[in-house]
Amino acid sequence: MPAYAPDSVMLPSSAPHGFLIDMDGVIYRGNQLIPGAERFISDLLRLELPFFFLTNNSQRTRRDVVTKLSRLGITVAESHIYTCAMATARFLAHQKPNGTAFVIGEGGLLNALHENGYSVVDHDPDYVVIGEGRAVTYEMMERAIRMVLGGAKLIATNLDPPCPTQDGLRPGCGALVAMIETATGRKAFSVGKPSAVMMRAARKELGLDAIRTTMIGDTMDTDILGAVQLGYRAILVLSGGTSREDLAAFAYRPDMIVNSISDLSAAELAGLNGHSA
Ligand SMILES: [Mg+2]
Question: Could you give the domains of the chain?
Answer without folding.
Answer: 85-190 (3.40.50.1000)
